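Encode chain A's predicted structure.
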Amino acid sequence: MNSAQVASNPLLTLLGFVILIGLLLFLIAKWKWHVFLALLIPILLFGIIPGIEQNNFIKAFETGFGKTLGKIGVVIVLGSIIAEALKHTGAITVITKSIVNLVGSKRMPLALTLTGFVLGIAIFSDVAYVILNPLVHASAIATNTTIATMSTGLVGALQLTHAIVPPTPGPLAAAALVGADIGKTIIFGSIACFFGSLASWAWGKWVAGPRIDTLPSEEMAGTDIITEEDSPLPVFRAYAPIVLPVILISMQSLAVLFIDEGHPLRKFILYIGWPVVALSIGVLLAYWNIRSKEDRMASRSKWVENALKTSAMIIVVTGLGGSLSEILKGTPAVEYVTSFFTQYNLPAIILPFIIGIIGNMVTGSTTVGVITAGSIIAPMLGNLQLSPEAAMLSGASGSVIIKYVNSSYFWVCTSLSKLTVNDAIFAYGGATLVGGLVSFIAVCVMWAMGVV
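Encoded structure for chain A:
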């Protein structure tokens, strides 16, 4: 085993593992505890099960927490700073308009879906939807389209890349937990999300949209960016804080494959492709887009403070997820779970997908779903013969299924779109269900081909 023996009694540790997960989900879903306490308390209770070696338990807890945060703590903060800058510099408007111009204003639902696909990589999905909501209503009014047709693809696409593609904090954390290559995760996660996003758009256009007759609201509509004057911010500068870090991180993975070890170019690419460096460059590019003195002052402190507040929960929860993984490595419970799949010849890639679904459906949080899947599946990878990248992408695909009334994202989109709850469950819940399933199928295809 990779870690010190935490426990040796198979039956007790397996039972304790099941109780731990059940208590975690119960505390969040029933008693509405914050996920930090809901995860910490069961882990600590696990440590007093008869047969647990407390010294090794404590060592595993501290090792897992520190090792995980050492990989992604700073990176999560840097990604949150980029998202904060994108909100204030007008980059989101420029990106949206460029995609509308590319696809055509007559295809606004598709344009908004592709916008969500891009923005979800860098910005929390609920924040992005709040920013784009006025455009959704304005576009629906201009094209005489129902709000469900206009918004459903956007809702699905934002959630998919937010859940699956780093450097968004959730998938970044999950990648760290399972030891996945971030560059490969970005590349293959983007492929899976692209097909999933198109599926969400198709659900809105041909299934949900025609069946929901809610019209857009004049009071919710904002400036029509299709007809307004061009922004002084060039398109390439709007995209650069998102695209360049993604390219640099992806190049790191390609350099390992195609450039000889010890070559100066490989060393250089590996350094600038290190997520800490790549996202620091993204921050600089985002700050380059600041146009007002007020924003320049805010960027020095306020934006960073906001980013730290946004990052704090994800960082500590990810650290606890790392502790849980390290503890489970030292128990025979892992072997029991994995032997079930191998004994019955079940596809290993299904397990993280199911864990992601359960985590999201019970807690209502995509981030908790993907981190839970990563935490539980990480110590099982060796026995399951599943690559870290395939495991992470499978769990992330499951973590978007299904968005309904216990999800804050669901309520943000529902309240702003003015849909009824039942219509929103059908439209938005359906979009995330279809999008998540199609993304998972894409991951399965890539896994079967040996690509991921």
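The first helix runs from residue 10 to 29.
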